[in-house]
Amino acid sequence: MKPLQSMKKINFFHLLFLLSIALAAVFCIVSVVQSAHLQQVEHQLSSMRGETSRADHLQDQLQDLTAKYDDLSSRMAIRQSFSETHASDGTKIAYLTFDDGPSKNTSQLLQALKQSNVKATFFVIGLNCQQYPDAVKNEAAGGHVVGIHSWTHKYEYIYANMDNFKQDFMQLHDYLTQQLGSEPTICRFPGGTNNTVSKKYTKEPIMQEAVNWVEGMDIRPIDWDADAGDAETPIPTKDQIVQRVLREIGHKTNPVILMHDFGNRTSTIEAVPLIVQQLQAQGYTFGTLSAATPATLFKPVVTAAS
Ligand SMILES: [Zn+2]
Fold this sequence. Notes:
This protein has helices at 2-86, 106-116, 126-131, 135-141, 155-158, 162-180, 207-216, 238-249, 267-281, and strands spanning 93-99, 121-125, 145-150, 186-187, 220-221, 226-227, 256-260, 285-286. The protein is of the alpha/beta class. The strands form two sheets. Strands 1, 2, 3, 6, 7 and 8 form a six-stranded parallel beta sheet that branches. A two-stranded parallel ribbon has the order 4-5. Bound molecules: zinc ion. One of its GO terms (biological process) is carbohydrate metabolic process. This is Polysaccharide deacetylase.
């Protein structure tokens, strides 16, 4: 019995040992498999987290683009409504406009316009109005239209940010309202609304926002489509100004002619009667600008992204 008992004992411990090894092996395999599985799950979770943050980012971009689209759509609708309401009926009307005055030559310019029996539009500078306090009243009394240009005309100030732009604009708006007894309804942005000038003075050009803000006050920004070139140096002669104006007008039905009321030159004033004669001979009459002038006068606004 003894050897048999001993053999049984050996076999029992042997079996127990083998069982332990087997259990340990199974445990190891399960651990390895679980760990691999956990790693896989973690990897999946982190890639899902990455995708969620990408989706959030795309959502933000989508919202941003949607806002820009809405803004552009409403601006296009405004301009479309202008062109539908105020489309040219084909009548040839030219608009003489004089920027940057008043000056010491304003009364002489008013005299030349009176002699030619035409009315014009003046986009004035506030600081010059203070220097020639009777000028805007004389312009309005002569049947001409006075619009906002800028209080300071300092590009680096007015186009630096919206606060500066609004301050400068409203200073002249309030001054003209007080001087003329009614609010101005038109304006011309210094350098024009196409942004080629203003974008030099800010990282994020404010032109689009400024145009929206002005239009929101029912004031109409108006550019030009025939540049007389009279602000250039050397100062052009009256004949050069006339030729340039006729060339720029070409076959336009409602040209808006950009000229200047500067104190350091008189060739613009001398050119006025000649321009009037030439254009009248071509069948044009002369008008003043208003919020109802044909919308083709708008130039596209270039945004920061362009
Ligand atoms: Zn100007």
